[in-house]
Hints:
- The protein has a single domain, classed as Double Stranded RNA Binding Domain (2-Layer Sandwich), CATH 3.30.160.
- The protein contains 4 helices and 5 strands; from the N terminus they run E-E-H-H-H-E-E-E-H.
- It has a 5-stranded mixed sheet with strand order 1-5-4-3-2.
- Strand 3 and strand 4 form a beta hairpin.
- The longest helix has 18 residues.
- It is globular and about 50 Å long.
- The two termini are 27 Å apart.
Amino acid sequence: MGNMFRxxxxxxxxxxxxxxxxxxxxxxxxxxxxxxxxxxxxxxxLQTDVEVQLRKAGIRVLTEEEMSKTPGxxxxxxxxxxxxxxxxxxxxxxxxVELRQWASLETDASRAMVSTWSIAATGSVGNAKFDSVRPxxxxxxxxxxxxxxxxxxxxxxxxxxxxTSPRRDLIR
Length: 172
């Protein structure tokens, strides 16, 4: 049963107009539960994966200080939740990636933190295969990268790719 696998399902909210003008993002990964980390999937590992992936695509990863000085203070929020069965034979997971930023509300000009882009994936894996959740985080971030690059195309001759190729089974 350790190899049980169900392809993920995705939910997507994507409005390219709301992404215009963002020159980079800070990455904030929600901490994983201790039992998930003990099973081999770590917050640090995922944080590093995402930051390297963004940089390879030519997207600037902002420090907290840089983010605070950037209009909207944009950050990429990533939450991975793993739910284990009591018999420990199977685990369900959700991966959520959101672009969050501060925005002024039209109604009264107050500021609010809003999610201007998001994607979510769900799936299941054998508990011994927690590391196999990593590709779903990568693929969800790839969808963000494609959306970002559709608004911020790379100049001709740029070494960064114009678009990444997320797995086809994730795009429905």
